[in-house]
């Protein structure tokens, strides 16, 4: 089956068109003459690449002028309440408003003391050297526990050692 090459013939149009050195057709925007279908009060002189069978084109700038502007996204205003206040059994705001599981209780306004939220203490970040030392110590502990599990004949003591081993493995995983 033979493929046909696209026709290089420029179709007749009332708007000027030209071919470039790569064989692409470009055409002048249809708003280049006044009082056209999409006329918005200014003449456009933009050239746009089109298909070979196109007879008219509206450039991207004229299309944008025709459309309504996109809505501007606004960020939500941050609440003065702490995170998770809706899920607290009881939360009292600074102005005395009382909330039970996120629902305001107007009858109790001003009757309870304000809820004090304590900040979580920051965890100390380990340096690379401290981390390496901790990993080596946990590795030694894990090896000791594995050996103790193998040697231990009592079932109760074995399960206790297994729990300690899994706890040490979890700590090691956190460090890695």
Percent helix range: 25-40%
- Report strand %: 5-15%
Determine the mean pLDDT: 87
Give the tally of β-strands: 6
Order of helices and strands: EEEHEEEHH
What's the overall geometry?
Answer: elongated
Characterize the largest beta sheet: strand count, sense, and whether it forms a barrel. 3 strands, antiparallel
**Global structural class:** alpha+beta
Distance between the termini: 61 Å
Strand order of the largest sheet: 1-2-3
CA-based gyration radius: 37 Å
Low-pLDDT residue intervals, each spanning 5 or more residues: none
Number of domains: 3
Contiguous helical run count: 3
Question: How does this structure look, described?
Answer:
This protein has helices at residues 60-66, 128-151, 155-175, and strands at 17-19, 25-28, 47-50, 91-92, 98-100, 103-104. It is an alpha+beta fold and 176 residues long. A three-stranded antiparallel sheet has the order 1-2-3, with no helix packed on it. Strand 1 and strand 2 (25-28) form a beta hairpin. Helix 2 runs antiparallel to helix 3. The longest helix has 24 residues, at 128-151. The protein starts with 16 loop residues before the first strand and ends with a helix. The model has no long low-confidence stretch (mean pLDDT 87).
């Amino acid at each position: 089956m033979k493929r046909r090459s696209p026709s290089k013939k420029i179709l007749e149009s009332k708007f000027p068109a030209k071919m470039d050195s790569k064989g692409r057709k470009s055409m002048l925007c249809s708003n280049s003459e006044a009082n056209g279908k999409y006329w918005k009060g200014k003449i456009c002189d933009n050239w746009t690449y089109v298909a070979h069978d196109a007879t008219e084109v509206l450039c991207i700038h004229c299309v944008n002028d025709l459309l309504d502007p996109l809505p501007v996204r606004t960020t939500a205003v941050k609440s003065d309440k702490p995170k998770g206040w809706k899920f607290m059994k009881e939360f009292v705001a600074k102005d005395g408003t009382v909330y039970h599981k996120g629902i305001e209780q107007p009858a109790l306004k001003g009757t309870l003391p304000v809820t004090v939220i304590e900040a979580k203490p920051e965890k100390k970040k380990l340096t690379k050297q401290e981390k390496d030392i901790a990993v080596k110590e946990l590795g030694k502990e894990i090896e000791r526990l594995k050996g103790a599990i193998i040697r231990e004949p009592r079932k109760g003591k074995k399960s206790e050692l297994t729990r300690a081993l899994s706890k040490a493995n979890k700590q090691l995983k956190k460090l890695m």
